[in-house]
Design brief:
alpha/beta; Purple Acid Phosphatase, chain A, domain 2; TIM Barrel; 2 domains; six-stranded mixed β-sheet; 17 helices; 20 strands; binds fe (ii) ion
Length: 485
């Protein structure tokens, strides 16, 4: 059995950017942390998360105390057991523990004991483990029949082999000697922003995780087997730049279901995450119908013939114009009414540089499944015939209502996509894209788009599952060749 540990460290959360250290994006640390937390919960599923300190950038004169509770709320979303320690940038230990909660003395998971240390600093950004803490370390090993892991902020490693790290414990030799005697197999640390990959030395391993707040926003996933052998994988929140990915589906604050969207921040995040561009794409039905009428599905039942239309497209276009740069394109996620007419006026449609089309509404209460399937194909063809560039989240409507996917409609929809030369979107927003359908798209030359469908900033350009999906369903293809340009 393997035990999986994720290391998130050095967030340096701050209210504003630090002009002296431009590579440090502490002003986005809450978003980076939430992105990591969501990715861990949904896709990586570790047995333990270690948060290695320097959660905030400026402990004084109170910014840190103000910001730490915000991070605590996000950390509490983690589904795995979590150990949080402080770093030299965090408020003093009493305040830190009061906000973050006092961690357990140790945590036993799958027969491995994890022991956190809150050690004092030494000049030159080094650290020191006190005789009392070394005694505790020894005692926790003596009373436990299995491998142990030492968790601390400042990297701990033997001084003699080359670790390429300028920081260490001033009494590292003494600590490591006791660790070896007490069956510790691994020391996990943060603090050194570059981090260093697993260093193996005389039967023990040493790892320093990279800073989550610096390009490429890395974290570490470690697996330890029951004998205490560790393997280590370094991953990034950022996307591989060489793939030149575009997020074709990013919402704005005008979506009724948005949480914190902001066009300027979406652009900054898209750039930070190594994308080639983003498409701002608001629901057309949200722009023409007020929340009450939208909730009553008037956009679907009556379309633009409804008696009350509240046109917010001028606000959408001016908001876009105020923030846009060459990194983004003006798009929309166009809805269709029950007669297959697009819910967008022609002058607005003509302004768009990219058109997503979607089926969000259907008469799913109809007891006749054949009629439901007929309407599904009718609305999809209406969207395709209207001239959209991409059909977003195909088949999601069934999954969202808890219905089985009508798999026999995969082939007819692929035929339609081919006929209208339209791309299909891979979308994980409240969705799992059907592999068989996308395999058929690829075999039939239907191009794909990647959409985060971001309603929260942490989602912008989050294509971790999309890329994994494409590598699984199309191992013989280069990813850029599958996507529209
Ligand atoms: Fe630090
Ligand atoms: Fe949608
Ligand atoms: Fe959407």
């Amino acid at each position: 059995m393997k035990t999986k540990i994720a290391v998130l460290t050095d967030l340096h959360f701050s209210k504003s950017a630090n002009p002296a250290i431009p590579e440090r994006h502490g002003e986005f640390a809450d978003i980076l942390l939430l992105r990591a937390v969501r990715r861990l919960n949904r896709f990586i599923k570790p047995d333990l998360v270690f948060i290695g300190g320097d959660l905030v950038d400026r402990p004084n004169p109170g910014e840190g105390r103000e910001l730490l509770p915000e991070l605590k709320k996000i950390i509490d979303l983690l589904e795995a057991p979590t150990i949080v320690i402080n770093g030299n940038h965090d408020p003093e230990i009493g305040v830190f523990k009061k906000i973050m909660g006092k961690p357990a003395d140790f945590l036993d998971i799958n027969g491995i004991r994890f022991v956190p240390f809150f050690d004092p600093e030494r000049p030159g950004y080094n650290a020191f483990r006190t005789p009392e803490e070394i005694a505790r370390m020894r005692q926790l090993g003596a009373e436990f029949n299995g491998p142990l892991v030492s968790l601390q902020h400042v990297p701990l490693f033997p001084p003699e082999p080359e670790a390429n790290c300028p920081y260490n414990y001033t009494n590292a030799d003494e600590i490591i000697k006791v660790m070896r005697e007490a069956n510790y197999v691994l020391a996990l640390s943060g603090h050194y922003h570059e981090g260093f990959a697993k260093l193996d030395h005389r039967g023990m391993s040493y790892i320093a995780g990279p800073a989550l707040c610096e390009n490429r926003f890395g974290y570490t996933v470690i697996e330890i087997d029951e004998r205490g052998k560790a393997s280590c994988l370094q991953e990034n929140l950022a996307m591989p730049e060489e793939l030149r990915l575009v997020d074709c589906h990013v919402h704005t604050r005008l979506a009724y279901c948005n949480e914190n969207m902001d066009i300027a921040k979406s652009i900054s995040l898209g750039q930070m995450f190594g994308l080639d561009g983003i498409v701002i794409s608001e629901h057309s039905a949200h722009l023409y119908f007020n929340l009450g009428n939208y909730s009553r599905s008037l956009n679907y039942l009556e379309g633009l013939e409804a008696s009350e239309i509240t046109d917010r497209t001028p606000e959408y276009f001016s908001m876009y114009a105020a923030e846009a740069n060459t990194f983004c394109r003006l798009g929309m996620e166009v809805d269709y009414d029950c007669r297959g007419r697009k819910v967008i006026r022609q002058d607005a449609w003509n302004k768009l540089e990219f058109r997503n089309g979607s089926v969000h509404f259907m008469d799913l209460k109809n007891p006749d499944m054949k009629a439901i399937e007929k309407e599904f194909l009718f609305l999809n063809e209406a969207a395709l015939a209207s001239g959209i560039d991409a059909l977003v989240h195909p088949f999601r409507i069934f999954r969202r209502r808890g219905m089985d996917l009508p798999r026999h409609l995969f082939a007819p929809l692929v035929e339609l996509l081919k006929r209208y030369r339209c791309a299909a979107e891979i979308n994980y927003h409240t969705n799992e894209p059907p592999a068989e359908f996308f395999r058929m798209c690829i075999e039939n030359g239907v191009k794909l788009t990647l959409g985060s469908d971001a309603h929260n900033l942490y989602e912008v350009g989050e294509f971790y599952p999309h890329l994994k999906f494409l590598r699984e369903i199309a191992p013989d293809y280069e990813i850029p060749d599958l996507l529209i340009r």
